[in-house]
Amino acid sequence: MTRASTDGLEALTIGSLAEALGMSKAGVVGPFGSRAALQAAVLAEAAEMFTAAVVAPGEKAEPGLPRLRAVIDLWCGYLDGGPFPNGCFVTAASCELDGRPGELRGLLLDVVTRWRAFLREQVVVAQGAGDIAASLDADDLVTTLTGIAMAANQEIQLLGDATAGARARRLMLAALAA
After folding, report:
1. How many C-beta neighbours within 10 Å does residue 145 have?
2. What Cα–Cα distance (Å) separates residue 131 from each residue in 43, 108, 123, 136, 177?
3. Are 12 and 38 in contact (CB under 8 A)?
4. What residue stretches are annotated with the Tetracyclin repressor-like C-terminal domain (predicted)?
5. Rounded distance between C-alpha atoms, residue 114 and residue 36, angstroms
């Protein structure tokens, strides 16, 4: 996972993993079968880690704005101190794969689409509860929240800005209050 975070999913191969683990290629290919399956497994694990860190605990909050706020807090905390050396794995993979056709891009598209659908659902529930203005477009809010998160990831990783996570949280909450 760490190697895929630092070098990118495309750089992850059976050979590079075998070398990093001090194993033979045959010892690594067995559990995965192919480079594509290895890359898919790493992406799936990264998505599961995000879900376990952000979505699952966020769902414990009361539906509506309390849940959306909890998810935003968890999301910004994940950006600020997540498990990967190059920040949000999905954001990095999105930048790497967005213009490359193929199965791995398709898997990433599914991960991102499910996350955006989850966010949209939370916005719609909050609107239905009267917590967020119904006049705000749910898809616009999802795009705004996602854009803020991507900018924060860049500010944290590239610019070394220790205040980016807190700023992202403020901006996301401000977007909901607009």
Report:
1. 25
2. 34, 32, 9, 11, 9
3. yes
4. 64-171
5. 21
Span of 3-12, 20-29, 85-94, 105-114 with lowest mean pLDDT: 20-29
DSSP one-letter code for 55: I
- Residue 82 gets the label, from left (phi > 0), alpha (psi -120 to 50) or beta, of beta
Residues contacting residue 6 through CB under 8 Å, at least 6 positions apart: 85, 86
Task: Compute the average pLDDT of residues 73-81.
Answer: 94
pLDDT for the residue numbered 105 = 94
In sign, the C-alpha dihedral spanning 39, 44, 47, 53 is: negative
